[in-house]
Design a protein that fits this description.
alpha+beta, Thiol Ester Dehydrase, Chain A, 6-stranded antiparallel beta sheet, 3 helices, 6 strands, globular
Length: 160
């Protein structure tokens, strides 16, 4: 498994995808094989804003945010080699076979493992896994579309 130019930090991640706090769910990229796979890390702390309500006294990372974190890692992988990546967005088209195997809690380190199963010009099928302490915590298949950021009609078609 090769690493391109070593691990990538938060500043580099923010240069690739537009997400920012509190919705940025990837802290570091450990491995990336352009066009193939990515391994990214998220350190879960009690300071995450969603823990105030999910669940008081027994904090658990919401499953939808585990899926979103996989998608963000996939977005980094998809946009890695795009020269004009600042003008692109990656949108969900579908989520299939989502399974949640164990809770993710403060103090855990999430390892997102995402691989490209099929890549076309503007669409992609990804397989993602959330690993915590060597155990599978969640998994899903996702379809995504790469769209122009400033194309309101194109964005409306995927969001609407």
């Amino acid at each position: 498994m090769s690493t391109v130019d070593g691990p990538r930090d938060l500043r580099w991640i923010q240069s690739v995808i537009p997400h920012r706090y509190p919705m940025l769910l990837v802290d570091r990229v450990e491995e990336i094989e352009p066009g193939k796979r990515i391994v990214a890390i998220k350190n879960v702390t009690i300071n995450e804003p969603y823990f105030a309500g999910h669940f008081p006294g027994q904090p658990v990372v919401p499953g939808v945010l585990l899926i979103e974190g996989m998608a963000q890692a996939g977005g980094i992988l998809l946009l890695h080699d795009v020269k004009e990546r600042g003008s692109k967005l990656v949108y969900f088209m579908s989520i299939d076979r989502a399974k949640f195997r164990r809770p993710v809690v403060p103090g855990d380190q999430i390892r997102y493992e995402v691989e490209i199963l099929r890549l076309r010009a503007t669409t992609c099928k990804l397989q993602g896994r959330v690993i915590v302490d060597g155990e599978l915590a969640a998994e899903a298949l996702c379809m995504s579309a790469i769209v122009d950021r400033d194309d309101e009609k194109g964005a409306a078609a995927w969001v609407g």
